[in-house]
Every structure is written in structure tokens, then in C-alpha cells.
Amino acid sequence: MEQTLTPKSEKRLTRTRSEVREMIDDNVTSVSKSSDSELILPVPITFSEIEENLQRLLDSNKAWAKSITETKPEFFTTMAQAQHPKIVWFGCSDSRVPAETVVQLGPGEIFVHRNIANQFNHADLNSLSVLQYAVDHLKVEHIIVCGHYGCGGVLAAMSNNQHGLVDNWLRNIKDVYWINKSTIESSEPEKRADKLVELNVKQQVYNIAATSIVQSAWADGRKLEIHGWSYRLDNGILNDLEVDIKGEQDLSDHIYKVYCRNHHIHGSHAHGHNHEHGHRHA
């Protein structure tokens, strides 16, 4: 159900252009007078609030970098050395679902890959490359597939309209619909799109688990878990879909089991034991 802002709440969530201009100018010229927490706005500014001025973005960046440096002088020099994230995130490209923001983690904590409707296609070299780098080189321990309710890609896949080249990308979601047709169509009409969003996330979790990349890590005895979440745009809450795959015993069917006789070709065995310090700058 869509909420309508009352005049009181609307005033609380918006700023005048002069207020935004003052905030940015104050941050740039006298950032030392502000605490780190004061520079993190409770409600982020919008591009329109700064008159779509790119210079304002650069000014905000300088203010942010200065505030971080004053709080943690070694922060950026440490970040420049290497990255050590424990999570790789496969999410939707939708601008309203920024991975680090919605879980409140900082730079260097999540390795992120996003595309339309959070797809993981076994023939997509882009997604496969991200997964392989994250698992074999960064040694992540958690893989999160995150979709979101109200996903335009899912809604487009449910329709019979033409949308251009993207229709080929969304074809996989139509297949998810067809496989789960009885489940989806037994839901109330207004809930069918949400159901497909969740089923789509679960399918991508299964797709990732079926890769030799993941199964080779399991064969090496490594901790590597795959999780499925979905984000609700109207309240900012992540929903744990409780689809968690922690090993080959959790695969949806034995047909997806890969006998990793050559799993030693991945990761440290392929590049020696010093790769951790030299290959983490993707």
C-alpha cells in the first residue's frame, strides 16, 4: 500500500536548495568543526536538491574524504593496499537498492555485482568472472543474491510486451514463471509479482550453487554459504527468504552435483600461496 506524505512528514524529508547548498559549503570549508556522524545525513540528499550540479558531487566527495581522514587517518592508505571482503553481493541494478547502504557496511566490506533483475546465468561470463574472483581470490565466505519487490525486470518478464534487447535477458525469469506457474497463479493477483521476485532470487541461488566454482571451494573444505534475500522498497527492510545453501548436501538435485576432480586448479593452487597480497585490487 503506497503511503502519502502529510505536509508535516514531507517537510521533514525534504530540504530547500539553499539548505542543501549551505550543508555542502559548510562541509567543504569547515569540515573540522563537524563530527563524523554529522556528515552522514539521516536522509540522503537527491541530485535535484543540488540542482543536478556535478561540481556539488565533487565537493561532497571532498568533504566525505576529509571527514574520514580526520577520524581515521590510516583509512584510505589501508584501503589502497588490498580488499578483504567476506561477502559477494549479486543484486539488481535498480538505483534504489545500493548494497552497502541498505546493510550499513562501509567501503571494502562487500564485493558487488549488479545487473537487471539480479540474474546469474550460467552462460554470462560477466557474472561468472565476478563469482570466480570473489570465491577463488578474495576467499569470500558468503554469497548473497538480493532481489527487490516491485522489480521492473520481473514485471516486464510477466508481461507480453516488447521492451527491446532486454527481453532476451529477462527470458530466464519467464522460465522461472513457467516452472512455478501453478504456485504463482494460485496466489492472489496483486501478490503474484512479489512471489515471482522471490522465486527468481531462489533460482539464482540454485544457479550459483550449481557452478564448479562454488563446488570446488566446498571440495577444498572451505566455508562458503549462499543466501537469498529480497528488499522492500516501501519500508527499506530486507526479507530473508530462508534459502541457504551451505554445501553440496543442500543442492536442489543430484544432477547439479559437479565431481571436482580438478578443483586444485582454482584459487591458491593455481597461483601459488602469495596471491592473496597481490591479486585483490579488482
Short account of what is shown:
The chain is an alpha/beta fold and 282 residues long.
Structural domain count: 2
Large-scale geometry: globular
What is the highest CATH level, the class of the largest domain?
Alpha Beta
Can you count the helices?
13
Number of strands: 5
Structural class: alpha/beta
Which strands sit side by side, in order, in the main sheet? 2-1-3-4-5
Rg result? 22 Å
Distance between the termini: 41 Å
Instruction: Classify the fold: give the CATH topology of the largest domain.
Output: Beta-carbonic Anhydrase, Chain A
Low-confidence stretches: 1-17, 27-42, 263-280
Known CATH architecture of the largest domain:
3-Layer(aba) Sandwich
Average pLDDT works out at 83
